[in-house]
C-alpha cells in the first residue's frame, strides 16, 4: 500500500484540508457529519482552485463545500454543485480509504 496522504486527526481542528498528492495534483479533504471525502481542488466552473483563503473549503455553516472564487456550493458526499454558476456539474472525486489507525490513503483509481 502507498503512503498515507493524511490522517483523520488533521481534520479535528478544521474539517477541511488542502493537500498535494504524490503525483503533484492539488486536492482537498472534507469531513462533514463524520464522513470524509476527497476531491481535486478545481471548480468545474472555470477550473480554478476552490479555496480562498488557503485551506478553507467549507461555507460558514460547515455543511457544504464552497468555491471561494464564485460562491458555488457543492454537496460534500457527492461533489454535486447545488448552487452557483456550475449547477448540474460536480467536483472530481478521489477514491480514498481510511484504515483502523485513521490513516487516509488514496485508493486505486
Automatic annotation (TrEMBL):
The keyword NADP does not apply. Keywords: 2Fe-2S, Iron, Iron-sulfur, Metal-binding. Residues 3-87 form the Rieske domain. It comes from the Bacteria. Pfam families: Rieske. Gene3D superfamilies: Rieske [2Fe-2S] iron-sulphur domain (2.102.10.10). This is Rieske 2Fe-2S domain-containing protein. It comes from Billgrantia antri. The lineage of its organism: Bacteria, Pseudomonadati, Pseudomonadota, Gammaproteobacteria, Oceanospirillales.
